[in-house]
């Protein structure tokens, strides 16, 4: 399994625009082959910090997702909403229970 954690910092006044764009693409992503979870979260200790949690069946599924046409359009759309480049962490993991 592949786990992806993305730290996202929208620019002041752009948070809702980012969330709206995310919600527009999220259902398409959740229908992709190999997508186990794709959820956006608000950090409770920082109103300006979001994080995206993703789980994928394989690296191949994640790579296909990252190269999908709807993701290319989404990334171009939200780029202007972000304060800085996202912090991305990808982990290959195995569930223990």
Description:
- The chain is 35% helix and 29% strand.
- It has 97 residues and is α+β, with helices and mostly antiparallel strands.
- Strands 2-3-1-4 form a four-stranded antiparallel sheet.
- Helix 1 runs antiparallel to helix 3.
- The protein is globular and about 40 Å long.
- The two termini are 14 Å apart.
List the helices and strands and how they pair.
Elements: E1 2-8, H1 15-30, E2 35-42, E3 50-56, H2 59-66, H3 69-78, E4 87-92
- Strand content of the residues, in percent? 25-35%
Detail the poorly predicted runs. Answer: none
First-to-last CA distance: 14 Å
Q: Determine Rg (CA atoms, Å).
A: 13 Å
Class from helix and strand fractions = alpha+beta
In percent, how helical is the residue content? 25-40%
Series of secondary-structure elements, N-terminal to C-terminal: EHEEHHE
| Overall outline | globular
